[in-house]
Every structure is written in structure tokens, then in C-alpha cells.
Amino acid sequence: MGKMTIDDLAKIRDAARYKIALRQGAGRVRINVHMGTCGIAAGAREILTAVMKEIESRNLQDVIVTNSGCAGLCSQEPMMTIEVLGEPAPVKYVFMTASKVKEVIDAHVLKGQVLKEYALAVGSEKTR
Amino acid sequence: MAYRTYLMVCAGTGCVANHSMKIKEKLESEIQRRGLQDEVSVVTTGCNGFCAVGPLMVVQPDGVFYQLLKETDIPYLVEEHFIKGRPVKELLYTPPKEKVPIPKMSDIPFFADQTLIVLRNRGLINPERIDEYIARGGYEALAKVLTSMTPDDVIREIKASGLRGRGGGGFPTGIKWETCKHAHGDKRYVICNADEGDPGAFMDRSTIESDPHAVIEGMLIGAYAIGSSEGYIYIRNEYPIALERLQVALRQAREYGLLGKKVFDKDLDFDITVVRGAGAFVCGESTALMASIEGKPGEPRAKYVHTVERGLWDRPTCLNNVGPGQMFRRSCCWVHSGLPVSARAMCQTILGAAAKARKSFPSVERSITRA
After folding, report:
1. Quick check: A22 and B82 CB within 8 A?
2. Does A69 sit within 8 Å of B85, measured CB to CB?
3. Any A CB within 8 A of B254 CB
4. Which of A74, B34, B67, B248 is deepest in the core (most CB within 10 A)?
């Protein structure tokens, strides 16, 4: 890169916004994929990849992805929990597949509507 | 694809001495072996201040703080935390005399009540990447100063901020700049004093190791205010990591045209030379420091003529410490936002039997070495 202009500063800053938000642990939405032995055996790995792909393709700058251990409901894995800042409680989604991930992100993350047909329950143990 | 997790490995002097670079290599190879290289990124950062429990690492966005890491811990850690999502309890921090570990960095008392100002980028960016500094708003204060303020505006702003020196005397920085700007001379110099000779003090080292570009940006703003084209950073040779990061930072700033002729195509030509001090305590004093830069024995002279009027090579010279250097850029942003604390922010080093450090110095940025 050659000599910087003032516009370049803003460009670099904008391009790195997501990276910096992650490093500060800050985000509007937190998607937690449960990855205990049961979750992994049921395909949690593909769910995690699907979540990351959705975030990438939609260029979501305020969603952070974490993974956690078994939540104790192994029969309904793969499972993921979505926490949205300002919503009263996190929501657990069960029997996830890559296409369900897409629907859930569309409805819950983007529109703020809980997708009841895939949800286990509203409200559960806190992850933060 | 973007990474989902960042492993912020501390690479301050304390952690590097405790082999944090080996931890970093091991993490990278283990992440590669597990096929996580597109999801998990390892970043080296400046000093986090909690050197007593190094080598340490912070996992983001989870905010989990790992301490006293050993190479042999890494395979288990990678599998448990990054594949199975379970933080490793044995590697978490447990406060003295307590039994329950604290997983999150933000819940650890040492970090919880710090307001980071001078060290706002510590642990958050790789100090050897100029783009990461810019990503945090770096060089924007300079851009603002060059595009919307005259040198006199800058001095007024610094005066209004109440910013004072950090060398002990507490001299108002705005007045120093103003005097220097109006002193007679064909050329003026800006010097950053990073010759931190006091035994056990390493605030400047931490600052430079974490965020070297902030010092450069501060000096650029100072240079514009007083009308200088030549700057020096006088730094102890005993700070090899700080020195290296500073040189990397200067090289990057030159490549981007942030040092050199016509910065941002505006009326500012400025470059910085690094001078290494040989470790004489007295060279932290302004006149001795300037004598040392000139190649003379580092001895102080009587200051009936101030260095702002006749300093380096008998020309007007503005000498500031590392801390305020960082804060010029903050001051320029802050006066507008009405935050009065800018004048008081300070980084402190606490060492020895420091169990009570938190009580004695609430809300300061701090570093603790192994007691």
C-alpha cells in the first residue's frame, strides 16, 4: 500500500469492525453451539460451520459465535442457543440442521422472531 | 471465512520471558492439527499487566482468561475449549486464598476496575500491525488535527484538557508547547522520553510494547502544534522488545506516508529517529538526555535557560514522556466530549508484595510482576 489518505483510515477501520468486536467480546447476538460429545456425534460440527457460513454470507457484524459443552439434553442434539441483547432470555433450538440454521438466523437474528417450531423452550441456563 | 475465536496471547516482556512465544507456536501447530486454522486465530499482544501469572492468554469473544500456561497444557486445552466448548478449569485464575476459579477476564478484580485510557489497545491489537491500530481509530486524531485545526487550536485544546507531564513535576503540557512554539530558533525538535530508569518501573515499556503507534501519533500531533519536522525517541536499550516494536511501527508508518513529507497531503513534514540510551539513570533528565542524543556525556546542566527555548543542539525542544505522548491524541478527542479525566489518567507499575495494590490505587491502569 502506498501513501495513506484520510479515506483509507476509515476503510481499514470499517473492514476490521467485526474482528475488533469479537476481540472485545461485544455483539448484539451470541450464538452458542453445544459441542459436548453427544452434540459432536449428532453433527454439531456441521452446525457450527453452517452458522459461520451464514454470518459470512450475510456479512453480520454484530453476531458472535461460541461453543459450549453438553447441556444435558443429549437426545435432542445438535442444539444451539441464541441470546439477543435486550431479549429477556436465551432461546434453545434443537435437532438442528444446516437448513434450519438458515431459517433460525433469518427469523430470530435478523427479525427478532423466535422460531417456535424448532425451539425447545424460551429461557434456560445462562451462558453469560 | 472470518474467524470465530481469537486467542490473544500476551507477548509483553514478562510473558515472553516465561516462554509465551513457545506457547503461541504450540497453539498454532495444535490448531492446525485439529483443522481449526480457518476458525481460530492466534494473535500476539502487548503486556496485559498481570505478569505475575504469565504466560497468559485471553480467549475472545468468550473473554476466558488462562494463566501460567505450559506447552504441555496446549493439546488438552485446544481439544477441550475450541472443539468441545469447555474451558479448562485447571488453567483459570483463582484469587489468592480462594478456591473457586474466575473464568472471565472481566470478572477478575485486577482487571474489573481498570479504566483503560493510555493502554486502551492493550491486549486487543497486535502492536506490530499498523492496520489493527487504525482499526481502533488510530491516526484519526491526527487526521482531525491536520484537517480541522490550526497549531494554535491544538495548543488551546491541550491547555483546556489540563494535561500535565508525567515525569513527576506535573508541568502543564499546553504551556510547554506554547512556549516552545514561540521560542526563537530556525528549527524545533520533539523528543519522547522513554528512558524509564526508575528501578522496577515499566509503564513506558508496557505502553510501547502494547501500542507503539499511539506514541508516534502523539508525537506527530505535537510536531504539528509546535512546528517541528524532526523528532527523537530516546529509549533504553534494555527494552529490546519495546525497541523492536517501535522500529517496526516506524517502518510501517513511513510506508503509509504517515511519517515523512506532507503527511495526509497536508502541511506537515515529520520523521522520527530512535536513539538508544545506554542505561544511565540520569539520562532520564531532560538536559542530560539531550546531551546524550548529541553524543556528549549524559550530564545535566543548570536550567536557567529552559530546554523549550534552547534544548537539543541549542534549539527549541519539546520533550514529553511516553504517557502524555499517547494522550495528546486522546486530549484532542476528549475536550469536545467533555471528559475531564484525561488530565489524570496514568499508567502505574506496582511490584513486590502487592496484594493490596487494588486498594491503594483504585481505577488506575496497572502492571503487577511476580511478588
Report:
1. no
2. yes
3. no
4. B67
DSSP string, A83-128: EETTSSS-EEE-S--HHHHHHHIIIIIIH----TTTEEEE------
pTM exceeding 0.80: yes
**What is the tens place of the pLDDT at every residue in B273-312?**
999 998 888 888 889 999 999 999 988 988 888 888 888 9
The closest CB to that of B257, out of A4, A18, A24, belongs to A4
Share in percent of chain B as helix, strand, coil (round to 5): 45, 15, 40
Beta-strand pair B5-10/B40-45: parallel
Q: B28-39, pLDDT tens digit by residue?
A: 999 999 999 999
User: Cβ atoms within 10 A of the Cβ of A113, count?
Assistant: 11
Give Cβ neighbours of residue B121 (< 8 Å, ≥ 6 apart): B46, B127, B133, B136, B210, B211, B214
Per-residue pLDDT tens digits for B119-176: 888 889 999 999 999 999 889 889 989 999 999 998 988 888 777 776 667 788 888 8
Distance from CA of A94 to the nearest CA of B (A): 17
B132:A22 CB<8 A:
no
Q: How far apart are CA B310 and CA B133, in angstroms?
A: 35
Minimum-distance CB partner of A66 among B62, B258, B265: B62
ipTM (interface predicted TM) = 0.85
How far away is chain A from the Cα of B271, in angstroms, using its nearest Cα? 15
Give the other-Cβ count within 10 Å of B114's Cβ: 17
CB-based contact A34:A77 (threshold 8 Å)? yes
